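fyi for ur records
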Amino acid sequence: MHTPKHGQSINFRRPKPRFYVAIALIFGIVFFVHHAIIAHQSDSNHPSAQPDTAQVIQTRQNKVQKELNAYLKKVTADGTATVSFYDLGAKSGSTAAKSKVLNKFYKRGEFAASSRGHTAEIAASTYKLYIAAYTFHMIHENAFTFNDTSKSSFEQMIVDSLNDFADDHLETWGMSNVDAYLKKQGWYSPVFLESRPAQTTALSLTSALKDLHDGSGPYQNKSERKWLLSLMGKQIYRKGIPTGAKEAKAGTTVTDKVGFYDDENNDAGIVTLPNGEQYILVVMTHGHEQTGLSGFPRIAKIAKHVQQIVYSDSLTKGLK
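which gave:
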């Protein structure tokens, strides 16, 4: 190595610019990789940073329930309507029943709401659901047997809403006996008193329809249950819940029992959407200068909006 003499300057070689560029690139890559690792670890330690399906479902469910409650409160605010809604979940074997997402979102009872549901109103012919229940009870007690005449009269009571069967058998069995049985089922009682028209509540009719849907209480006999549901599916007054439900979703079917008396227009039914989702809806109305069947379009409007709130396709869109 050459040693410079005293007083002789040393001539250093200056690094070329490419050397600095390379060093800068190396430091940049190290910096990027380091922060990427930290970010990944942060995401792993905080899964809430990416909302999972369960969180999204819960958020959407809460929104639906809030909107449903607000709507029912609005349509009953003037005291001339009572409404009860209950989600039954998916029908066994249906498309909805086979969907994991729909089973999570619409698990039975997830959505339930009522407004003025405990308020007793004139039942009109919805009380015939109770007569049907008591009839099956009497059959099981070996205290009644259908013949051709009584069977035809029972069918007319449900399909055409005629009064003959109900009037004859209430007189035979006694109002107090029927009321005692209804009370035992946990339904509203007394429905029947000599001093006033039959009355009930939207929540009581909902409870009766739950038992009918589930095959419990007086509806444990499968053939009787199937027969009653088929009659309700053929009842001739379809301008209420059936119309509203079909307007909300084509192909929706309804098994229901209506009632009309003076200005009272009522409808209580089990609704099945095309994909198999099911719910119970009871709407009891009066006032608004209703006469005859003029209140049923009002019921249809409520039914349509309720179904659109709860069963909009957008609610489960994008969920896995």
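The CA atoms of residues 35 and 132 lie 72 Å apart. thats all i got for now
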